[in-house]
Write a structure and sequence with these properties.
Elements: E1 6-13, H1 18-33, E2 41-47, H2 53-60, H3 71-79, E3 81-85, H4 91-104, E4 110-117, H5 124-134, E5 142-147, H6 154-167, E6 173-176, H7 183-186, H8 188-193, H9 224-236
Parallel strand pairs: 1-2, 1-4, 2-3, 4-5, 5-6
Length: 237
């Protein structure tokens, strides 16, 4: 059960990016409007781009799926948001982020902090190092959510895992893949094992090859760096 004397801060690292706009903020909106946020929760966006809350709202709102009677609720959602501009490789910028969070925690007995890395994998190491140095909660818990891809090969993946383990306890780290939340992906197990026709046949004895096709009604739109360095398969799976 949540303690009303505690507060929580959800920090979106990379708040101006594509992942945050299309996935993270829409998910936070759904949690907010359904009353699933812990009491006294604030959202802080952090990115290199300088954005006001009004500009952030303009970027994010088309992806929120807001019903006609939810405009007031949407205004309340963005009223719970803050935004901090800062570089990913400067400790002073993270000190500024920590000061913003600290101000939001005033008046509460404990402040919990969750950092979501909606960032290019190339900055995971420096960002997590700066979070550890400047932004860990002194009165509550701290958690770091790392989005895939976890490196571009075994060596880089193991290097990232070793780096994270040197900074945080295992219970403070969440490694996730938002793609696994898609309905079709979630239904693969049901399709495979609960279908009396496909079940007995869906194995190496009857399947010669598997073709995976990705179709989107838009281009890379700023995601070229991901595709160039990691490839489509690592990015979406």
């Amino acid at each position: 059960m949540s303690n009303s004397k505690e507060c929580s801060t959800f920090v979106v690292m990379g708040a101006s990016g594509d992942l945050a706009k299309k996935k993270i903020y829409p998910t936070l909106w759904q949690l907010f409007k359904k009353g699933l946020f812990p009491p006294n929760t604030r959202i802080v966006g952090y990115a290199r781009s300088g954005l006001s809350i009004a500009q952030l709202k303009e970027r994010v709102k088309p992806f929120l799926k807001i019903a006609a009677d939810e405009e007031k609720k949407c205004d309340e959602f963005f009223a719970s948001n803050e935004y901090v501009k800062g570089a990913y490789d400067e400790k002073e910028a993270f000190d500024n982020l920590a000061a913003k969070i600290w101000k939001l925690e005033q008046g509460y007995t404990a402040g919990n902090r969750l950092f979501y890395l909606a960032l290019p994998p190339s900055v995971f190491a420096i960002v997590t190092s700066n979070i550890k140095l400047s932004c860990m909660s002194k009165s509550g818990w701290s958690r770091v959510i790392v989005e895939k891809p976890f490196g571009k090969d075994l060596e880089s993946s193991e290097k990232l895992s070793s780096h994270l383990s040197s900074l945080f306890k295992e219970e403070e780290i969440y490694r996730i893949d938002h793609y696994l939340g898609k309905e079709m992906v979630q239904n693969l197990m049901v399709l495979r094992f609960a279908n009396c026709i496909l079940g007995p046949m869906w194995n190496r004895n009857y399947i010669e090859n598997v073709v995976i096709t990705f179709k989107e009604p838009f281009g890379t739109k700023g995601r070229g760096g991901y595709f160039d360095e990691f490839g489509m398969i690592r990015l979406d799976h």
